[in-house]
Model the fold of this input.
Amino acid sequence: MKTIGLIGGITWHSTLDYYRYINELADSKSGGDESAKIILNSVNYSQIKQLTFKNDWNGIANIICNAAKKVQEAGADCILLCANTMHQIANEVQQAVTIPLIHIADATANEIEKRGLKTIALLGTKYTMQFEFFKKRLLSRGIKTLIPDEGQIEKINTSIYAELGKGVFLKETKQQFISVIEQLIQKGAQGVVLGCTEIPLLIKPADCDVPLFDTTFIHSAAAVEFAFAKK
Done:
């Protein structure tokens, strides 16, 4: 079994799920009584959040690349950035290390392809929804992405940073997300990518009539597949 390197703390709420999913999947894949080999470097979310709001991606890259180097030096065989938004600097992180970075959008595209879907809705921070780093990866696989309108994007982004990232999950916020999802389905979305690792803590498969793609679980599963793959 290879060792999985995690850059977590963005936020720690979803990092908990990464740790749990990876160990549950490793245990299941091995037939029981095994846990995954994991090296976790948990960064200071407050610092990352402030730099994100300033659009200081160079500053973020410096922090995350240094974290990735330390994880590699500690013996990790791969790197996972435990946040969708941080994949804006995925290329910089990959260049900083010699071990592979498992990209969350690539892992998600694999799952969308398995369902045979061609048009999906993407929910996440405004950076994930409006920047190209996630959508471009899906488009390269022939998958079209729909996002909410400008006002909805701002409301979703605010709820992620002011509520979900702090472990606050309100019924009214959940209903707002469901309403946005229903509108995107009416526009042609065949599935919904929960492109923020905190959103799956709020929205569950039973809340939606089309497939939901939980990027936290999908990313974790891709890491376990890598860890158990034969050389």
Observations:
- The chain has a mean pLDDT of 95.
- The first helix runs from residue 12 to 30.
- Strands lie at 4-8, 38-42, 78-81, 119-123, 144-146, 191-194, 212-214.
